Amino acid sequence: MYLELLILIQIEKSPKHGYEIKKEIQKDLGYLMDVNHNMLYPTLRKFTDEGFVRKHRNEQEGRPNQYIYEITEAGREKIGNLIKEFTEKDAKHQIEFMVRVSLFERISQEDRIRILHRRKKDLEALLSDIERRLDEGGEALFRDEVLQYSISQVKGELTWIEKLIHSVT
Global pTM? Predict the structure, then answer.
């Protein structure tokens, strides 16, 4: 779902053709993800069919025609709904969470807190599971190193989420 959100955000900034959308998303989040044509163009087609974007053909001499995508009012509304929509399944995926946090200025304080608490609850369950696996022991030294590192990452994110909760309340 985060990809849909990122695509609409790029088109909302200004009308763009597909390659520009891909390039801008990768410029912002290239270290987290790759946007490929098999994800981008079916999503753009779906958004056009659902009325969230309009496309206009840009004819070019000596080059293939391009389609320029432009946001509609329904697309702007869809952005807000996608940001607020944060399920338990979404809470398990760091990128889903991070994209929404980066867009917190667009949603209410209540929705921010709900998203933060949902992610926090998922991380606490994950931390408990990792610590349980570490306590089970075993003879795999590097397995334990990975588990210890995972624990430090989860604890770090939980600390950050607590700071965010305090900053939005």
Answer: 0.86
